[in-house]
Every structure is written in structure tokens, then in C-alpha cells.
Design goal:
124 residues; mainly alpha
């Protein structure tokens, strides 16, 4: 007789909720930091935007996403070790790409203000 473990539905839900909650905190912290920078217009404030207050919700979001991905793969029958072995590098790579893009956007914002980020100006 084969034993099939119970799928980790709770972990999947908990990972999704942790990712969403951390994402909301990340958004609020980023908005607050950019608004503070726009009032002061000092370069030191914008350079410090990627500090610990912004990193903590970002890491929480990445951790929740990693658990969500690994649990989703476990539901489809992947072993636990393989699920996390696939989800962790995928989450780290995606998180690194998003973090570097955020840094580039903040530098662009510092150079040209909010007009530098106006995507509607590229329409013909």
C-alpha cells in the first residue's frame, strides 16, 4: 500500500497571505519614502530608500512567495526537497531582478523627477 502525504494546502495559503501582507507593507513603505524624498529633494534620502525599512517587507514578500511556490509544486506531487530546491532559486532570481530594477527606477527618479517615469509620453 502506498502512502500519499496530505497536500500542504495550509502552507500554500499561509505563503500567499504572507506574500500579500508583506507586499502591502512594501508598497506603503515605498510610497512613504518617496513622498518624504519629494518634499526634501535630498539625494541622501533617496539613496537610503533601499535600506532596512524597505528590505524587511521585501524579504517577507519573497519568503511568502517561495513557500507558496514550493507548496504548489508539492500539491502536484513533487517531493518536498525538490519543490524547495526549485522554488528557492526561482524566488531569489526574481527577487534580485525586481530589486535591481527598483534601484534603477529610483536613480531615474532622482535624475529627472517624476516626469522621467511618465510612460504615457512614449505613445504616438
Amino acid at each position: 500500500m502506498y502512502y500519499f502525504p496530505e497536500p500542504p494546502y495550509f502552507l500554500m495559503s499561509a505563503g500567499l497571505l504572507a506574500g500579500i501582507a508583506s507586499g502591502v507593507a512594501f508598497e506603503a513603505t515605498l510610497k512613504q519614502s518617496v513622498q518624504l524624498w519629494s518634499k526634501n529633494r535630498s539625494t541622501s534620502t533617496l539613496a537610503n530608500l533601499q535600506g532596512l525599512p524597505l528590505q524587511m517587507p521585501f524579504l517577507g514578500m519573497a519568503g511568502g512567495i517561495c513557500v507558496f511556490l514550493a507548496s504548489g509544486m508539492e500539491i502536484f506531487g513533487f517531493p518536498k526537497l525538490l519543490s524547495y530546491a526549485l522554488a528557492l532559486p526561482l524566488t531569489l532570481l526574481t527577487g534580485w531582478l525586481v530589486w535591481t530594477q527598483l534601484g534603477k527606477l529610483l536613480i531615474e527618479l532622482e535624475r529627472g523627477g517624476s516626469q522621467a517615469l511618465d510612460l504615457d509620453s512614449f505613445e504616438q
